[in-house]
Each structure stands twice: as C-alpha cells, then as structure tokens.
Amino acid sequence: MLKILFAPLQGYTTGIYRKAHAEIFGGVNAYYAPFLRIENGKPREKDLRDLECANADCANAKCADIAEGNARDLNAREIPQIIANSVDEFKILADALIAKGYTEIDFNMGCPFPMQVNRHRGAGLLNDAPTVQKIMDEIAKLSSATNETAPANAKKTAPIKFSVKMRLGQESPDEAFALLPILNETPLTQITLHPRLGKQQYKGAIDFKSFEKFYEECRHPLIYNGDITSVSQICEMERRYPKLAGVMIGRGMLAKPSLAAEYKALCSNEESSSAETRNINGAATPLNFFDKLLQMHQVIFDNACKTFQGDSQILSHVQSFWEYLEPSVPKKIFKRLKKAGKLSEYQEVIIEMRGSRE
Ligand SMILES: Cc1cc2nc3c(=O)[nH]c(=O)nc-3n(C[C@H](O)[C@H](O)[C@H](O)COP(=O)(O)O)c2cc1C
C-alpha cells in the first residue's frame, strides 16, 4: 500500500483545513503545511500562527493529537515546510520550527511562483548546486545525533528529520540530475518529485521519462506528485513503480477529499467491498460524500469563526474550501457561495444547501 500524503497548498490547506480533513475524511499518512518563509528577516508570523492554530483554541481533541504527531486517524502527522534562498535563511526557519518542537521538516525546491523564483527560492534554487550543497550540509548536521561528544550534563538535542519536495528544474530537467548526487549523499527521509519544470507552473505535460530516470537513480524513498485525481491512478502508480514509497496529492484531494480514505479502504478490504462496508470503515462512498463535505465545511466554519475576526477574513477562509469542489456543488449554489460578500449571505446559502439534503 502506498503512503498517501496531502500536498501543501498556500491559501487552501490551512491548519484549520488540515484538521477538519483528518477528522471527517482521513486516510492520509501525513499533511504537509504550506511553506514558512522569511519576512523582514524573521519567520513570517502568519505562517507560524497557521501551524499553531490546532493547539491554541480549537476545542477538537483530534486537532491537538495531530499537532503532537499522534492523531488517532491513521497516524496522520503534520509536517511543516520551509522555503529559503540561502543557508542563512534556512537556519533561521529551521531553528524556529525546532524551537517549536517539530522534529521533521520538509524543504521546498519546487515552488514556481515568480515572487519566490525571482528571489532564488523554490524552483529558483534548482540551478544553484553550491547553495543547495550548503543547505544539504546543514541538513546533515541537524540530522545527525548531534552532541554525543558534548559533556554529560549538556542538553541533548534530538536529531531532526528532513525531506525535500522538488521539481525537475526551473528551465531544464538537467537541473535535478545535477543535484541528485548531492541529494543522494544527504540523510533525507524522502524526496517528493513533481515532474514538471518551474516555467510550466502547474500546467502542461508531466515528464514521465525524466521521472523514471530519477526513480532509477534516486537512493531515497521517492514520492510521486502531480495530477492524481482518482483511486485508479494511485493503483496504476503502485503497479508501474513498485519501489515508489507514496504519492502526494494536492488539487485532486481538494476536489475529492475522500480520495485517500477510498484508496485505503480498497487496499484493506479488496474483496468484501460493498458500499456499506466501506462506509463503516471510514471511507466516503457516493452515498454520503456530500454529507461529509457539509460536515467538513461545518468544522472549518466553526474554527474559522473562533480564529478570525470580521466577515472578510472568515469568508476568505471558508470560500476557498469550495473552490476546487465546483463539480460537486449545484452550479447556482456554487456561484452564490463564491459571490457572498457578507457572512449572513453566505450562511443563508449553506442553510439552503443543507435543506436540499434533508
Ligand atoms: C495554490 C497553490 C499553492 C501551493 N502551495 C504550495 C506550498 O506552499 N508548498 C509546496 O511545496 N507546494 C505548493 N503547491 C504545489 C502543490 O503542493 C503540488 O505540488 C501541486 O499542486 C501539484 O500536485 P497536484 O497536481 O496533486 O495538485 C501549491 C500549489 C498550488 C496550486
């Protein structure tokens, strides 16, 4: 069975979203938080707050569990991610997360947004082997069981685990292959590869030929990421790439939050798979998918109201939940959800949608 990882998506998979998904749909082995970046020389406060949202005032016990890395729901873990253009930025961000108690951190070398690429971050780092080498040296330092030689009374630091999420390159796949020997020598838990170039952003053909070469040459557990939207595609990846450690899914999971649970249910229950049985096992079936969506929305809505103030902040949080769900919502309702400028208008539409289910 492949590991199913929920990809980070800035503006969508917020802390509130991640907790609600784990509670209502689940099936995910780990949730990757959108990147933490430097702002005015410091870790960006808004990103740090998002990581903390589970602990502070969320009344939901499961949220706290996930933050501690031991959620009841299929051992789902929450892994923070950082984006940096130098070893100095990297250290500031990694230190901030380590100080918060995180012991596993993902490093972003794939973001294609011009704001980041032009600042030499994300995919903009892929053609700079010397800087990547320095960052990987820092990772090696932080990953080793550090102060074994320190005096017996010195405080022991736990080794930190690192992974990398990357593309094939900004301009050419040669960039990833030039970096691979450096990455192979670094103690990483896994590499997630999105086999596109930064200049393609999230569209255009996926380069499976280069993915296969990377798959053969990569010495770390490899995770595939890109355009997965169905259980059959996950099974096909498993069949085609037997050494694959997992798949990371982003937009496909936003559009179908039951995807991971459906795959897990299929794997654990191949032969006796009546819709009702799968239901008991926690996976969403066509029968209850929409009701679960409404439940997940309610959890997000309630937590957004507790966390944010003012209609516009709350609305931007809850409206983004529906964005990739357009095919699952009646057209007219979808339009009104997106257009609502006041919380009261938005709630009216939700009540109507609920009513239509009863
Ligand atoms: C709006 C948006 C925001 C994203 N934010 C991040 C991010 O913070 N960190 C990251 O590593 N990838 C980010 N990604 C990339 C996704 O994690 C993922 O790699 C990409 O969507 C391809 O996977 P998918 O086809 O399964 O969606 C973002 C993508 C989108 C569309």
Describe the protein.
The chain is α/β, with parallel strands linked by helices and 358 residues long. It has 2 domains: 3-280, Aldolase class I (TIM Barrel); 289-355. The protein has 16 helices and 10 strands. Strands 1-2-5-6-7-8-9-10 form an 8-stranded parallel beta barrel, surrounded by 6 helices. Strands 3-4 form a two-stranded antiparallel sheet. Helix 1 (15-24) links the parallel strand 1 and strand 2. Helix 13 (289-307) packs antiparallel against helix 14 (311-323). The structure holds flavin mononucleotide (FMN).
Concise synopsis of the structure shown:
The protein is of the alpha/beta class.
Tag the structure with descriptive keywords:
two-stranded antiparallel ribbon; 46% helix; globular; 2 domains; alpha/beta; 358 residues; binds flavin mononucleotide; TIM Barrel
